[in-house]
């Protein structure tokens, strides 16, 4: 990363004239602590993916540092029961990605600060934990290459960005590549419309930077691109139906900001857009609605989950923050059911995993319930 990554930030996100505080809404549902003794006593934000049979699978780290997971009893309906597939050596949050054959792969940082993974052998069944190696300091991020291989992005012990890429789609071996820089926290990665992956990182002074593959599934461009701002949590990004990447960040005032590519696969617009709110200092979750609008989810200062959604699938205007209720101890995760309804997951203040699913695609959210 060029020297500018280490310079003192001379400009920050333009402060909004008024910060929109997320006061509890009168209609917000409140999660009541439940007396339950099943499943993990979850300690970190969950991860969720869609299984090869179409059912959602949710993963969480238990208080025993093992990995636990539960899958829907059938696609979009119920839950089959928690299973412990851990080795009591998971140091951070799990991250889930699908192999090219549709089977889920889980990555995580071990207590030895190495990257580990566990791969499904069939729907609902996982093989053993395998140590990939490396020395990492934060939770990994993943993205699928255009050739079907998975790339994993991590922060090394010296503060550099590294990526590990499968040698072949659904393969069991991979290759490390150092991408340099001096980054803080966990990276994020998302594919462009042309298949090239862009990695988003926070550098010196809290500024946001990107680095993009020079060609799909291939080598990387030689330098980072400076997007500025003061970012205090892991960024997240989502490609819209118009092909443009949008990156969402938590600014220094704990407000939500967005920056959008001017054209698909191209440079980002010169300014951030302010989307409001006062949010907890942690990563957001992001997904697309069935109609193509992007929704962002995060935890407010009242510990409820709130969401901000595009007004139109290709537009630059977003709704104000709206509460979907609950009482949570960490960040949200979101996934899409086979029928297009979004499902939001989180670890409650009671340390159980809770979920709320849209009543219909693009619609409101149903009652919060424990994932059992």
Automatic annotation (TrEMBL):
Q: Which domain of life is it from?
A: Bacteria
Residues making up the signal peptide according to the UniProt record: 1-28
User: Which of UniProt's keywords are assigned here?
Assistant: Signal
Q: Which residues form the PLL-like beta propeller domain?
A: 38-277, 284-363
Which Pfam families does this chain map to?
DUF8189
Q: Which InterPro entries match?
A: PLL-like_beta-prop (IPR058502)
Keyword Zinc assigned to the entry: answer is: no
User: What name does UniProt use for this protein?
Assistant: PLL-like beta propeller domain-containing protein
In which organism is this protein found? Actinokineospora auranticolor
